[in-house]
């Protein structure tokens, strides 16, 4: 029996069935002596596990502590300074404000400088122009003066002559007017001298006859002019008539007789008259400014600053202030060194704040503030997230610790419970062995069952914990899927039989021959009210060819009940049955991996839709009522899931409430190519049925196919008939119809109970057929057998009367069980001797009883053990402690039937001894013509193949591994005895 | 002594055996050995184990002598002795002795003298442990037999 998983204990795979393990062991033909070892191994594994988990948990706790400390240390800068965050924001805002202010200042300054520059240039420009204009005018006056003085040479008195008082009358009469004063226009009072205007432009003709000396300004001007001999300017004053501010330029005209470098007196004396030009400064400047662009933008004032403490305004509205913050002074030189003038320019309007400053600075501030706020927000967020993170981490650590504690607790408690439970169970078992009243016995048995259930539960919990902890490792061992499935069935057979449920296994032939990899397992559980219950097990190809949906009245499942995934199962099953459909499995050839799919289908209450999501969660049941009704802890499926995932597969299911569920899983296996492993995978089934023929009567094709599958494994070819009547008539040959495949021999008819029950009045026919055949000793008598899941007493009686008496085969069907039953029916037990496939002490005993056997071994202990073992099987044993002694004992003729030879012996080893024995036999043959062949079996501790070959080479007949194993011993002995019948007979004769 | 402790003794024996299996001191071969014991040879196990101890004692003694010799070089002889020991140990199912013997043997095959000395010590330790355990087991067995032999008229 080989398991795909080398689980230390088969219970692990089917955890719910611990209580049936003994059954399992027996059916598996396992050497009972192996059982304690396995369990021991299992236990020790558990102990180790529990301890390990403990240390692991402690370690984890330490780790967590460190982590926590680390987290606290590792809190970020931001988090440490979280209180400063709002302050930081305010500070930042202030800084931004200052920077903005600075920027404003800078931009403002820049614009001011530019403005000033503009003002300076404008002012200078204006001053220069004014000056130029003025000098041009002065030149004109000068030219005029020269012209006038030229005229003067020819007139007397000169037209422009200054008039002294003595000459006034003459002058007045000459000109025909009187000299008037400037202020009143009245005739001038008598003065020392006069300076009446003689010539004037038409525009100023009113000036004529006015005495220029009468005006303060003019008089002073005139005096100064004739003293210096240069053009002189008056301080500004309101001009006559126009009332504009103006200046008067006075230019002296001298008589010709002016000495060189004249003194002031000489000049005064030489003065002939004056030439005056009135400058209307206001209109002049206005005119000038009008010529320039931007004249409105600035305010211009022209001052006479000859008396520095009292500047006189020459031009400009004193009220017009303009922008007083900024002004510029420009010097003016009107050509009179005595007079000083200046020009002051101002902007008319205050400087407007520039647009770019208006936009830039607020924008900058806004951006700066926003950036600050964003940073603040981010920091606040970071702090929050980190706080959350730390909180989460703490929670996680706590959760993990709780999880570890849980697992640890489970493991520890489970382990602690198991120990006393073993005691309790042991005591209960002993108690049950004592004499008890029936009530007491009942109590004790109940207690024992409960205890076993508890142990099973604990095992499950431990399994789960172990898988969760990743402690479970898989080992690859070769196995035979059919045997495995048979074993699984046997585990559940009793339960299913009690419930009226039956199981069956079907594995596709393609599985091995074509390497096909999909296996479907159908388990159709009968609902409670159903009279019949059938399990169905399908192996199927997973190709979908969905035909019409089956009608509710007849489902194509084995039981005839609806299944959750019924169509799929039927289709795939059909697919599998049709042998033409060969699966091309190129992938399979390519890789050594095999994916196996197993699906299990049942009928029943199904799983409520709401509960389907948590089916695979540990300790979850569909609902609480489920556990009340059906028991269980809800841990099995989660363990299954873990196992399937370990095997790189998937597990899932389809379930329909009140119809049933179909669970399936896949698992990946490796292909086993080694020849040495081929042997164990061959099914250990009786071969005595090879070539037999049988008819299976079953109305349900799927179920019939399952039956056929098992029969086929036994080597029986099967024809399926749907009606018992047809089968009986075929068998009895009454209607003369030939057997389906034209064969002559029909060995048995296997009838499904349903078919038998449903066929009325068939009993008589069967009886008839039976009686007929009973009378007939002929070999062709077909035997009748009945398949049933459960059978009532009355039915059993009926069956007995109908002739099924000794052949009710209880389902679930297993090849080995069918074989056993059929052997019984066909009375093949005798034949078994010739086909000693099974081994048992009885057969070994029969083989060895009365035989005289020589055991050659240098090791006294080994000798003793071997002798003991052989003696136990009824053999007479003689021991020899070396090859030489053995040779001495085996001098022909001797009475030994066999020899067990140790290979490793000092002096003469087993090979050498055997060679010598064979030589002796040869000599004896030549001498006596009697053939001697003593079966010699090597005893060796290391069963390497090479050793085996060497054994054969040196003339041995086989080998047994040391220490003796019964089965092994039996096989070797049987083989060598069979191979040497002559020797056997000769031996027994001798 | 009064025959009342049969079950307790049996339980003790079982516990002792279980612990020996746990520790890997014994393996299933020992159970097979026990199965060979029946009415015809009621002391079969005891006999075999005693032979084993006698033989092993001799082997161990000679192994120690061989290894103590300073100019020693006969590793082959050691190997032979060890083969014997391995064979008999596996025959009675003394798994741990067998395991350490195999290790010892591989050391001797490599002519590794320190390894051999260490191996010898380990083997001796295991051997004595086994012997003590067996002694205890047989004592229990004897007591049980005694107790089981007591019969009271009903």
TrEMBL record, chain A:
Domain Histidine kinase: 412-671
UniProt-annotated location(s): Endomembrane system
Primary localization class, coarse: membrane
InterPro entries named in the record: 2C_system_His_kinase (IPR050956), CHASE_dom (IPR006189), CHASE_sf (IPR042240), CheY-like_superfamily (IPR011006), HATPase_C_sf (IPR036890), HATPase_dom (IPR003594), His_kinase_dom (IPR005467), HisK_dim/P_dom (IPR003661)
Catalysed reactions, as listed in the record: ATP + protein L-histidine = ADP + protein N-phospho-L-histidine
EC number(s) per entry: 2.7.13.3
SMART domains xrefs: CHASE (SM01079), HATPase_c (SM00387), HisKA (SM00388), REC (SM00448)
Protein name per its UniProtKB record: histidine kinase
Organism: Brassica napus (Rape)
Lineage of producing organism: Eukaryota, Viridiplantae, Streptophyta, Embryophyta, Tracheophyta
TrEMBL record, chain B:
Domain HPt: residue ranges: 41-137
Cited InterPro entries: AHP1-5/YPD1, HPT_dom_sf, Sig_transdc_His_kin_Hpt_dom
Keywords: Acetylation, Cytokinin signaling pathway, Cytoplasm, Nucleus, Two-component regulatory system
GO molecular-function terms, A-Z: histidine phosphotransfer kinase activity; protein histidine kinase binding
Cellular compartments per GO CC: cytoplasm; cytosol; nucleus
PROSITE patterns found in the cross-reference section: HPT (PS50894)
Keyword check for Zinc: no
GO annotation terms (biological process): cytokinin-activated signaling pathway; phosphorelay signal transduction system
Localization, UniProt: Cytoplasm, Cytosol; Nucleus
SUPFAM superfamilies: Histidine-containing phosphotransfer domain, HPT domain
Pfam family, one: Hpt
Keyword Nucleus: yes
Function (record text): Functions as a two-component phosphorelay mediators between cytokinin sensor histidine kinases and response regulators (B-type ARRs). Plays an important role in propagating cytokinin signal transduction.
Entry domain remark: Histidine-containing phosphotransfer domain (HPt) contains an active histidine that mediates the phosphotransfer.
The protein's name: Histidine-containing phosphotransfer protein
Organism lineage: Eukaryota, Viridiplantae, Streptophyta, Embryophyta, Tracheophyta
